[in-house]
Amino acid sequence: MNASNESLIETLSSEDLSLLESISITRGFVDQEIIFHQGEAAHCMYVVADGFVSISIDEQGVSHNLATLAKGSFVGEMALLGKTVRNATARAKGNVTLWEIGYEVFSALVTNDKLIADKLNEVHEARAAERIKIMLDSCLS
């Protein structure tokens, strides 16, 4: 997955960006630190403010790297959109700064901002398709 195509920050006006930063909680992670595990309950999503995040899934005991996300990308939205558990593991690659957006704020953003909702849905669909592809490849091999 191409992280540059997923930049939420690039789609926002400077006012929206300032608002997003002000309503989020800034979290720091060190190299290889787990941000969240596959199968965990979801209560928030993250925007990568600085650094890189590796996304992987575990299928039948085999870890598959899905993507490396860069500044401006978002992660964790799939579980919030689907109201399910995390379907992947996110891990810091180097030192990472993330903006944590809780479920209530996320819900308000998706409801009130069509641009953000469209961007989240676009990436959600691409990520779901990638996960299905990996699961099928895993079953066929």
Quick rundown:
The chain has 141 residues and is of the alpha+beta class. Helix content is 40%, strand content 34%. The protein has helices at 8-11, 14-23, 77-82, 103-112, 114-140; strands spanning 25-29, 34-36, 44-59, 62-69, 74-75, 89-102.
How would you characterize the overall build of this protein?
By secondary structure, this protein is an alpha+beta fold. The protein has a single domain (3-140), classed as Jelly Rolls (Sandwich). The protein has five helices and six strands. Strands 1, 2, 3, 4, 5 and 6 form a six-stranded antiparallel beta sheet that branches. Helix 4 (103-112) crosses helix 5 (114-140).
Write the layout of secondary structure elements.
Blueprint: H1 8-11, H2 14-23, E1 25-29, E2 34-36, E3 44-59, E4 62-69, E5 74-75, H3 77-82, E6 89-102, H4 103-112, H5 114-140
Antiparallel strand pairs: 1-6, 2-6, 3-4, 3-5, 3-6
Low-confidence stretches: 1-6
Question: How far apart are the termini?
Answer: 22 Å
Number of strands: 6
Radius of gyration: 15 Å
CATH-defined architecture: Sandwich
SSE series: HHEEEEEHEHH
Strand residue content: 25-35%
| Overall geometry | globular
Mean pLDDT: 81
